[in-house]
Specification:
Strand order of the largest sheet of chain B: 1-2-4-3
Structural class of chain A: mainly alpha
Shape of chain B: elongated
Oligomer: heterodimer
Distance between the termini of chain A: 50 Å
Largest sheet of chain B: 4 strands, antiparallel
Strand content of chain B: 5-15%
Helix content of chain B: 40-55%
Radius of gyration of chain B: 28 Å
Distance between the termini of chain B: 60 Å
Number of helices of chain B: 13
Number of strands of chain B: 4
Order of helices and strands of chain A: HHHHHHHHHH
Number of helices of chain A: 10
Radius of gyration of chain A: 29 Å
Order of helices and strands of chain B: HEEHHHEHHHHEHHHHH
Helix content of chain A: over 70%
Number of strands of chain A: 0
Largest sheet of chain A: none
Strand content of chain A: under 5%
């Protein structure tokens, strides 16, 4: 190892190769590193450092590319196995719901307000327009679907629905509605335009459907149906849109950073919003599948819906305000 | 150090990121390769290969097949169990839930459990990592995979391909937002000991003055060249050799007739190590041209 006389490449390889192979064998195991026997784990750590040193040496001595490449890749694979992401704890999820999500939501109130406006205003316009002139609804929603909805809501809920039908609908709501919310969020990357577009189009469609069904005389029923899970579903859709717009806005207003840097900075809060919205949509799907269509008297449904709205709004307004020993914080 | 505490690592990595971004240009000094340098907390830099669109596409298709296969099997089991596959039923609900989980949850589940890998990625030796080579956190995984909703548009990942074409690290939108990239974990194999065959004769070596001294870069260039012999056509070998051989000949004040043999002899005289001949595996150097 004397410095002045560098080891020839082949001699270097001959001397070190066994160690490289040993590390290679450990890495080739399918098991995660922490599941291996303890002595093997510490051997892997030691070998990894050796390989790092060998890599630096091989590069400094100008050894052939194959050696440097081999060591590069060996060190890279070892690095990726040794430094794994932290294990997932359920307490993290609790932390997100109890603090991270509502805090980030309040912090992004401008985006939430903008998203709410983009969703609610078209919804109200669509509702009023189709209420006054039901034929307009066919412009945005297929007429067959409208008639089917009007008919089914005209029947009311007294008959209830079978449990299996409930399950199938809950599955459908998860697949369809959560999928839509994810798309509303994801398309925000196009400078927020995708989110805005989907918010407006969903607003118009929901408004038009509501207006049509109300005009057909089943207004009370459809509102009874929608109000309960709406507390979670409609708010979560708006939040997904807000998250998407916040992401898009990071591309527009960079505050002196590169667009990419600005985007990356906004990544974690935006992910928290999207994740929180996804959980809310899951809750909404359960309510929508099992509670909303049930034969519970309307009065109870309205009372519950009111309570849910108050609960959700109170959660947004107050959850996570106390500065507890909260690792992670709001940003 | 085997189980490095994540928080500790994070702190160190973050500390360095604040100083200056450690990522060097992906265009490595040695040419067109898609290499990115990663510096570890041990202050060791190593280069990783960024995975290109084609390899990622294969991994994507593999994952797609797996997801489709799972959905098919679940549907088959549901129908064989005698449950009606009408819209009005448990099976439909469960099937839709499975479809949802496969569409949005598959990547999130595997990339968080397998540290940036899915079955498709694993089969192709790919791995998603943070830009600094650090493993993904759960939020990173969620972000890069939710953005598939935008990457997929308008159909079949067209946006993703378009964005990747303009990014030097082939990142799609989800990668850009989450600050991740997909690397290829390939294994380069170390070549066997360098051999020149037929062995250099004493006469050949004599033509080079004993005082020949080459720089480290020159030696490594010669070695790289000599190791490639046999993988190139003889004409190409000669063509390559003749690009540098005249320069060395002029410097040393000697003449040569076969550039390849000359460079091999020069390498040995300047201190390069060549294994003693013996195996017939090594390609003949210059022999075919001699006849």
């Amino acid at each position: 190892m004397s410095g002045d006389h560098p080891l020839g490449q082949d001699a270097f390889v001959a001397r070190r190769r066994a160690r490289w192979q040993q590390l290679d064998q450990i890495l080739a195991q399918r098991k995660a590193l922490h599941e291996l026997p303890p002595d093997l784990i510490s051997t892997a750590g030691r070998l990894y450092r050796t390989v790092c040193a060998d890599l630096m040496r091989a590069r400094a001595a100008g050894y052939g590319r194959d050696i440097v490449e081999h060591l590069d890749q060996l060190a890279g694979r070892a690095h990726n196995r040794l430094y794994r992401a932290s294990p997932y704890k359920i307490s993290r999820l609790w932390d997100l719901l109890a603090r991270g999500f509502p805090r980030t939501l309040r912090e992004s109130w401008r985006f939430v307000a903008a998203a709410a406006a983009l969703f609610v205003v078209p919804l109200v316009i669509g509702l009023l327009a189709t209420w006054a002139n039901p034929d307009l609804a066919a412009e945005v929603v297929p007429r067959g679907q409208l008639d089917m909805l009007a008919q089914s809501y005209a029947q009311g809920f007294s008959a209830g629905r079978s449990e299996s039908a409930d399950t199938s609908m809950a599955g459908f709501y998860v697949y369809n509605n959560v999928g839509i919310a994810f798309r509303v969020f994801a398309t925000g990357i196009f400078f927020g335009l995708g989110s805005a577009f989907y918010l407006v189009s969903n607003g118009v469609m929901i408004g038009a459907t509501l207006g049509y069904v109300i005009a057909a005389g089943a207004g009370r029923n459809i509102l009874t149906f929608v109000m309960g899970h709406g507390a979670f579903e409609l708010t979560a859709l708006v939040i997904s849109g807000a998250a998407g717009m916040r992401m898009g806005y990071a591309l527009v207003r960079t505050e002196g950073r590169t667009r990419l840097g600005s985007l990356r900075e906004e990544g974690p809060p935006v992910a928290r919003l999207a994740l929180g919205a996804a959980i809310m949509l899951g809750i909404a799907a359960v309510i929508e599948g099992y509670w909303s269509p049930s034969s519970v008297p309307d009065g109870v449904k309205w009372g519950t819906a009111g309570a849910l709205w108050v609960l959700v709004m109170a959660y947004f307004a107050f959850a996570g305000r106390r500065v507890a020993a909260a690792p992670g914080g709001s940003r | 150090m085997a189980t490095v505490h994540r928080a500790d690592y994070d702190a160190r990595v973050r500390g360095r990121q604040r100083q200056a971004p450690r990522m060097r240009s992906p265009v490595a000094p040695d040419g067109l390769d898609t290499l990115v340098e990663v510096e570890t907390p041990e202050h060791v830099t190593f280069r990783v290969n960024v995975a290109g669109p084609s390899r990622r596409a294969v991994a994507y298709v593999l994952d797609l097949l797996i997801r489709g296969g799972v959905l098919f099997v679940v549907a088959l089991v549901a129908s064989m169990a005698g449950v009606d596959v009408e819209f009005d039923g448990w099976s439909t609900g469960v099937l839709l839930l499975v479809a949802f989980a496969l569409e949005w949850g598959y990547y999130i589940l595997f990339e968080s459990l397998w540290s940036g890998q899915t079955p498709g990625k694993r089969a192709m030796s790919l791995r998603a990592v943070k830009d600094g080579g650090v493993p993904l956190t759960f939020l990173d995984v969620v972000l890069r995979n939710l953005l598939r909703g935008a990457d997929w548009l308008p159909a079949f990942n067209v946006v993703a391909l378009f964005v990747m074409a303009f990014d030097e690290r082939f990142r799609r939108l989800g990668d850009l937002v989450a600050g991740t990239m997909v690397i290829a974990e390939s294994r380069a194999h170390i070549g066997t000991a360098l051999m020149v065959s037929p062995p250099l004769t004493a006469a050949e070596l004599e033509t080079i003055p004993a005082s020949a001294h080459l720089s480290g870069a020159e030696m490594s260039a010669l070695e790289t060249f000599l190791r490639r012999l046999g993988t190139l056509s003889p004409a190409r070998e000669l063509e390559l050799a003749d690009m540098v051989a005249p320069m060395f000949a002029r410097r040393l004040g000697v003449r040569y007739d076969d550039g390849v043999r000359f460079l091999a002899a020069l390498f040995v005289r300047a201190g390069g190590q060549v294994a003693a001949a013996g195996g017939g595996a090594a390609a003949p150097v210059g022999a075919r041209r001699r006849a």
